Amino acid sequence: MPLRIKEDFGEKIERFKTHPFDSTLGTHKLHGNLADYFAFCLRDGYRVLFDFEGDNNVLLVNIGSHNDYSKWSRG
Length: 75
Prior knowledge:
The protein is built from one helix and four strands; from the N terminus they run αββββ. By secondary structure, the protein is an alpha+beta fold.
């Protein structure tokens, strides 16, 4: 993963921890074969795929470009 994406992730995950639906993150529910997941946006078209597990836990599943969605599936 490019360094600029790692740095952006480091900044955004801190915001996500306290405000997972902050408008600057672009958090959204996914559809299709990833409908059980959510994602938030990083720079350059990268996304963080995750799932809420209970009230205070989040499972980070994957980080990749929007085009990578077709490679990911619920498993």
